[in-house]
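Write out this protein's structure.
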Amino acid sequence: MLGQVLRGLMRGRSAPVGMARPGFATPPAAPAPRTAMPMLQALASRVAAGLQQAPGDNFDAERWGDERGPRAMEASRAVSEQCLTTLLQWPAEFQAAWQRFEDETSRSLFIDLLAYRLLGHRHVRLPLDAARHWHQRARAAAMAFAPSQISGPFGAMQRFRVEFAGAPIVLDAYPGNVAWTFLLGQYHFSRGAVTVAPHAGDVVIDAGACFGDTALAFADSVGGKGRVHAFEVDAGNLQVAQCNLSANAALSARVEMHERALGRESGTLYLHGSGPGARVLSQPGGLPVTVTRIDDFVAEAGLPRVDFVKMDIEGAEFDALQGAVETIGRWRPRLAVSVYHHVGDLARIANWIAGLGLGYRLYLEHYTIHHEETVLYALPAGARLQCPPQ
């Protein structure tokens, strides 16, 4: 399998007929000559280097269990096969997306993420500093001060006390929620002079509120004059989120929770699964749920503007963005969009945002030592950059 990966990337060939397509809206571009695809060359070099490496202490057992167990092995195989299939069928789309990023850090991370998906943790270490990562995970666990009365999808939760943008926050969650949202700053991007995050007074859309931790963090960031519109459809997630909002009265006054999914068209779709990984799909068989276009919601709610949009909705991000095209065109909100649920989203979402012609500057960040939790940040043209500290 590893030999196939390397040979396919070096040749820049297309996928065999019949292999699954990632859902790009346009037909695949004709394969470009290898010399015209520096991204593919860089990835092939990264894969070749990875095949010679065997980094230790590079597996998240808290997330995946036994390193050699069936769950971890099957997930790694599926991620690798999906990545290879998608890359070989859509090389021009990945090349275009790679070129759109504003900084070398994002372009390098793009290559590292693809190499990790192809080869896994035994051959590729992602650039997130492992020592800092595990330090923040340990800090998060130490912030628990009492057991929770809530049994969540991954077992008993704990009660945590954290501070984020100034206000003390009490919430029932898992250590990972505290680590990623409040300590590692997921959805609050800062690199050099560039910041993509909610500001004081902002109107925020939080698509995929889950346990309410991100809604509380955003409410803390926007202050008393801001507003957070949080969307969640899974009943278990909503129960936890409502409990967390109730425990933080000052912040919850800035949050409106909406029991709706977001999509390309308003109507009805079906919720499959439960918990943080629940997905809204068109296939019947799941629980019917109300789906709303962001554009329709903004008009219905009479929002004065939208300043920041965060999306982590289990692979429905691309559809939800297409349902927000009027909002994005009118208000030019800052965007923080998860692009890890399908490897094709790394390319098609970046290309779609750039294709709007609004001058968005694109950045990529990643928050784990495995393939999950990649966020694409988009800063609108004309947004003022921060001055770096002297």
